[in-house]
């Protein structure tokens, strides 16, 4: 019998998934169901990362796609027994500081949070419903992007707004928590208990200050818009701009949402692309300014987060840009020597893991993130498959 847990990341028309064994860090298979609907596609990779043929299936709905995924896995592992499914869920609200097994009550609670994350939460919940339908009786475990930050001190949880808004949930939730959780779990001993700033720089980008492995402050706030500029999101913005757009330009909430989530950030500044690789080679003044702005905002946030935790022992880069762009890492670090940050160019060119110069006071590292593994660990734990047994 092959016991396994499945991780699912459900978007509006896509499902990213990974099948993990009951023990061990390497998935048995991974894949993507895309364009769920009449033109749906399903791509699978096996344990070695090589493409594997997918079973024919009905890709018109999330439930159909999940079933097709599982049938494909069964083709590879005929004696497969699914113990649990772990779901990436963007919002766990005020109360969830850890993963939770989904019951009807939990589901109702998560549905009520949809207004806090209207672009993602409903799709994540569709994934849970679809998996519950496809695998009756199998535990569904919700893993939240917000959970890792829930024990931040009040001062980093609040906005200076009337109290009643805080009480109804207008707080700084922070996101990318599954990524930070993973990084915290693999920090080397000498820095694990120190003050570490993690820069998750992907299409979505944020930073988090850790002390002793726990989140103290982060750049994202109530929504995934705040903090750093991103591929298409604006990052930090003066709320007065939004008032101007509403009052003077008559823009609706939907139009402003589209502007801030989809047309801003690197794309908006460059007028060219949200893709850092493309901007690095574009050589237009606007692309250079977009990169300048991104780098500058990263530097400022690192300074701000270091102030929040009273210093810095290590800086960790992760996600697409953080893991791969030696140029952006070098440019961010170039003006941080006052924080003891000094890169070794050869190590930086090799993408780490340690990229700081020998003897530099602050350790700088590149650590590839692994959000799926954090979800798989939670899915295992929920059904009593402990990591101790895995060791
Ligand atoms: P998401 O937030 O969608 O998961 P990723 O973590 O995959 O995004 O990051 C995507 C970003 O990483 C894109 O801007 C992409 O251009 C950038 N990226 C990936 N590889 C490189 C590279 N070699 N050099 C520069 N940027 C890169």
Number of separate helices: 16
**Radius of gyration over all CA atoms, rounded:** 21 Å
Largest sheet: 8 strands, mixed
Distance between the termini: 20 Å
Low-confidence stretches: none
- The CATH architecture of the largest domain can be given as 2-Layer Sandwich
H-E string: EEEEEHEEHHEHHHEEEHHHHHEHHHEHH
Please tell me what the overall shape is.
globular
Mean pLDDT: 95
User: What would you give as the CATH superfamily of the largest domain?
Assistant: ATPase, nucleotide binding domain
Any idea of the CATH class of the largest domain? Answer: Alpha Beta
Which ions, cofactors or small ligands are bound in this entry?
A: adenosine-5'-diphosphate
Query: Structural class of the secondary structure composition?
Result: alpha/beta
Q: Helix content range of the residues, please? A: 25-40%
Strand content: 15-25%
Keywords: ATP-binding, Cytoplasm, Kinase, Magnesium, Metal-binding, Nucleotide-binding, Transferase
Binding site for substrate: 88
Site (Transition state stabilizer): 176, 233
Family: Belongs to the acetokinase family.
Report on this model:
The protein contains 16 helices and 13 strands. α11 (285-309) crosses α13. It has 2 domains: 2-150 and 371-390, Nucleotidyltransferase, domain 5 (2-Layer Sandwich); 189-366, ATPase, nucleotide binding domain (Nucleotidyltransferase, domain 5, 2-Layer Sandwich). It has 391 residues and is an alpha/beta fold. The protein has an 8-stranded mixed β-sheet with strand order 5-4-3-2-1-6-8-7, sandwiched between helices. It has a 5-stranded mixed β-sheet with strand order 11-10-9-12-13, with helices on both faces. The chain has helices spanning 62-76, 104-112, 121-134, 163-167, 177-186, 189-192, 239-249, 253-262, 265-270, 276-282, 285-309, 319-324, 326-334, 345-349, 371-382, 387-390; strands spanning 2-10, 15-21, 29-34, 41-45, 51-52, 80-89, 100-101, 139-144, 195-201, 205-211, 214-218, 314-318, 363-366. Helices cover 39% and strands 19% of the residues. The site of adenosine-5'-diphosphate (ADP) has 13 residues, from α10 and α12.
């Amino acid at each position: 019998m092959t016991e396994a847990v499945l991780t699912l990341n459900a978007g509006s028309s896509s499902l990213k998934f990974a099948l993990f064994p009951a023990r061990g860090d390497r998935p048995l298979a991974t894949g993507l169901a895309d364009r769920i609907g009449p033109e749906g596609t399903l791509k699978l990779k096996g344990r070695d990362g090589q493409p594997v043929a997918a079973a024919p299936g009905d890709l018109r709905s999330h439930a159909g796609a999940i079933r097709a995924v599982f049938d494909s896995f069964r083709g590879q592992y005929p004696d497969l027994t699914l113990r649990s499914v772990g779901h990436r869920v963007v919002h766990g609200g005020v109360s969830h500081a850890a993963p939770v097994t989904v019951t009807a009550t939990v589901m109702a609670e998560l549905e009520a949070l949809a207004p806090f994350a209207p672009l993602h939460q409903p799709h994540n919940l569709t994934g849970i419903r679809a998996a519950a339908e496809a695998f009756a009786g199998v535990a569904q475990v919700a893993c939240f992007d917000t959970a890792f930050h829930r024990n931040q001190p009040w001062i980093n949880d609040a906005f200076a707004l009337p109290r009643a808004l805080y009480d109804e949930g207008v707080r700084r939730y922070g996101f990318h928590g599954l990524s930070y959780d993973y990084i915290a779990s693999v920090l080397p001993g000498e820095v694990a208990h120190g003050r570490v700033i993690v820069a998750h720089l992907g299409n979505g980008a944020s930073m988090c200050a850790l002390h002793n492995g726990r989140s103290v402050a982060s750049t994202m706030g109530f929504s995934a818009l705040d903090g750093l500029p991103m591929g298409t999101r604006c990052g930090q913005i003066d709320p007065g701009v939004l008032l101007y757009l509403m009052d003077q330009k008559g823009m609706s909430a939907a139009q402003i949402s589209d502007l801030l989530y989809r047309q801003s950030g690197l794309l908006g500044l460059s007028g060219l692309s949200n893709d850092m690789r493309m901007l690095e080679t574009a050589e237009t003044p606007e692309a250079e300014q977009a990169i300048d702005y991104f780098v500058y905002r990263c530097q400022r946030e690192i300074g701000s987060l270091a102030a929040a935790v009273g210093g810095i022992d290590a800086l960790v880069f992760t996600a697409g840009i953080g893991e791969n762009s030696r140029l952006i890492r070098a440019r961010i670090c170039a003006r941080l020597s006052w924080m003891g940050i000094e890169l070794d160019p050869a190590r930086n060119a090799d993408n780490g893991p340690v990229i700081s110069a020998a003897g530099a006071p602050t350790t700088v590292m590149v650590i590839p993130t692994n959000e799926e593994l954090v979800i798989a660990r939670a899915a295992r734990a929920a059904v009593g498959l402990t990591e101790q047994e895995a060791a």
